[in-house]
Structures are given as C-alpha cells and as structure tokens.
Amino acid sequence: MKIYLLSGLGADRRIFDSLDLSAFDVQHIEWIRPTINETIESYAARLLSQIKTVNPVCN
What we know:
alpha+beta
C-alpha cells in the first residue's frame, strides 16, 4: 500500500524517521517554494503533482 506523507510547516521528511513504515510504499510530499502572489489553490495543485495515485484516499 502506498502512503503519502506531508510534514507540518517548519518540518521536513525527517519528522517521520522514528516511525516504522517498512510495510508501506512511502512517498514523501516535499514542500515547494510558493511563487509571488500565488493562490493557495495554485500552490495546492503544484503539490498535488507529486501524487501519482489515481483517486487517492485521505484520512
């Protein structure tokens, strides 16, 4: 099962280092630099480009 992990603001993928996620296919969503005057919708769409699963489920 593939899981996507997104750290909170001010953190990066290392926040998950102490978790045993070896049973999963882990994909980290990397924070990207927003562009000047970018809307939150546009920013979210660019983050979404890192998710390659069709119809992902969020919990």
